[in-house]
Hints:
- There is one protein chain.
- With 140 residues, the protein is mainly α.
- It contains 6 helices and 2 strands; from the N terminus they run H-H-E-E-H-H-H-H.
- Strand 1 (55-62) and strand 2 (65-72) form a beta hairpin.
- Helix 2 (20-32) packs across helix 3 (75-88).
- The two termini are 24 Å apart.
Amino acid sequence: MTIQEIQEEIVDEFSMFDDWMQRYEYMIELGKSLPLIEEKYKTDTNIIKGCQSKVWVHAEMNDDKVNFTADSDAIITKGIIAILIRAFSGQHPKDIIDADTSFIDEIGLKEHLSPTRANGLVSMIKQLKMYAIAYQTQLN
């Protein structure tokens, strides 16, 4: 599936819920299904700066595709990074770099987060794209 298709699927899933309490519960469930980062990668270098909670992300390249694993010490944040990893993991670096992230606005996520969590969300997106840029540079 393309990033766009995955994002549309996420938007559809979130539209099934009537209120934000249900959406938060769904995000928590998504966080539980997150491909967890190995303990050895839970280092300061893998912490996303700008997040109120601790969020670790590890990326590696397999068959010209970037695969992400992550973890967080906060359940909502874990759900947020799970959504982003679902959209971007297993994709080509260039596709990640070029990806539009307006699906975040479509599901209404940013407006339902505290300002510090919203900043953390932006930092997570930026970090995933930075990994993709690093891998794209290696491919060129």
